[in-house]
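Dear Dr. H.,

I hope your travels went smoothly. While you were away I took the liberty of generating a structure for the chain from your last submission, since the lab meeting agenda had it listed for discussion. I wanted you to have the full record in hand beforehand rather than looking at slides cold. The sequence, exactly as received, is reproduced here:
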Amino acid sequence: MLFLAVFCGFLAEYQLEHQIEKERARQYIISLYEDLKNDTTQIDQLIGYDNKKIEALSNMYACYDTVMKHLESTACMGTLVIHSRSNRGFALNDRTLKQLANAGGYRLLHKEDADSIISYENRYKVYLDFQATVFQQAQDNVRNTLNQMADFKVLSSHQLTTATFAIDTTRSTLNGPLLFTDDKTLLNKWFNELSMYLRVTNGQRNIIIQQRNKAISLIQYFKNKYHFQ
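The corresponding predicted structure, in token form, is as follows:
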């Protein structure tokens, strides 16, 4: 009888611990579910930002013809400078991911849940690598060449009126001809780098769209499995 009582107590304690871990796992999923919704909101804003850049930079070809014919006709470059000066990056909402990693929370999750979360995080790491290497190099090239050929006062005035992460096309007017030099080779280099920057921005947008699609897929997966509203 004593053995049976001890054994039943052990089973009860095990069952209680199992229920506690099951509830902890559910709380992790709920928290991650909210993070994913916040991620999609942020990503939607970034896609809109990149769409504006891509649309504006696609006009560089007509601008190239204009400036190459008349080096003082640089008005069209104002918009190109605005849309190639800065970038807005995506920062993953990682509060739940950190908890899962630091507190050993992954062991509490079903394997398919853990695998899907890790896959989402790994996709984000691809985005970060692209940002730190390919995109950053293209951004630096455009900036550096612009600094070599732009008139200091005109560029400085332009930077003061557009010192914001939000792209404001109403502030694209240059306060005079932008070019400080008549070096067409340098000007051609900038437009070549701008063309590469456009392709890289397209690539960045495609990667972030894939991240968004993965987030939406996970949201739907957890919503169906755990009956979230």
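Two observations you may find useful: The CA atoms of residues 34 and 219 lie 9 Å apart. The helical segments are 2-57, 60-69, 77-85, 95-102, 111-149, 152-161, 184-226.

With kind regards,
E. W.
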